[in-house]
Amino acid sequence: MIRESEEPLTPAGRLFIQPETNISVICCFGTHEPLRIDAIKSVIADSMISKHPRLSSILSVDKNGQECWKKTNIDIDRHIIFHNDPIEGAKDDQDAANMFMADLVVSVPFETDKPLWEVHLLISHKCAVIRAHHALGDGISLLSFFLAMCRKADDPERMPTMNPVVVPRRNPGDKAIGGILWRLMKVVWFTVVFVVDFIARLVWVRDEMTVVSGGAGVELWPRKLVTARFLIDDMKIVKKCIPNTVSLLFLKG
């Protein structure tokens, strides 16, 4: 029987903690002003980051051998890591952040005796890198969590709101027996087509070898990150052409 302080991992969480699928979510914040260490520690210590049940639990194994989250006390000094020296070989602050994140993805594993998140402060480059294990959540859920911590600029007591998604209404004719049977037939037909296509690709189709094809152990090779810039006007054009869309960009390593 699981105690109140323990919560079993979801099937997805168990998948992400396997060595073959060990994935972390990384986010970088840059500032124009020097980092104020004491203020950053105070804000994180008083925020939902250190109080949320999932973010204040360690990965544990119960007496039945099942992975679970076990509630613990947050030691904020173990989660905020300072890097005072500049990154060697970096052209500028942006390049330094990219080099640091690329190395952080594969070179430094998470310590399992503390919650699986940490904040790296690059003092010389005025940026903060947040790393969280994918077992804590995916990009969307973590983004929703950080959004829930925010407040409106004009009303500090209220959370920010997002435009509601307009769901198109179904045609009343779809509720008829004929419409239901027709939709069921399409589901069965396309399911068979996609399964056959998947099996055929799995058996006969192979990716061609190119100059960027990876070999054995490619997941352990050194990583490199580059920054891509997008014009807001171009993204607005895409949003106008595709109604009810939200532009989100995530970087996972």
From TrEMBL:
Residues 69-186 form the O-acyltransferase WSD1-like N-terminal domain. The chain crosses the membrane at residues 187-204. The keyword Glycoprotein does not apply. It catalyses: an acyl-CoA + a 1,2-diacyl-sn-glycerol = a triacyl-sn-glycerol + CoA. This is diacylglycerol O-acyltransferase. GO terms for biological process: triglyceride biosynthetic process. Pfam families: WS_DGAT_cat. It comes from the Eukaryota. The keyword Transmembrane applies. Keywords: Acyltransferase, Membrane, Transferase, Transmembrane, Transmembrane helix. Pathway: Lipid metabolism; Glycerolipid metabolism; triacylglycerol biosynthesis. PANTHER family: DIACYLGLYCEROL O-ACYLTRANSFERASE, O-ACYLTRANSFERASE (WSD1-LIKE) FAMILY PROTEIN. One of its GO terms (molecular function) is diacylglycerol O-acyltransferase activity. InterPro entries: O-acyltransferase_WSD1-like (IPR045034), O-acyltransferase_WSD1_N (IPR004255). One of its GO terms (cellular component) is plasma membrane. Its EC number is 2.3.1.20. It comes from Mikania micrantha.
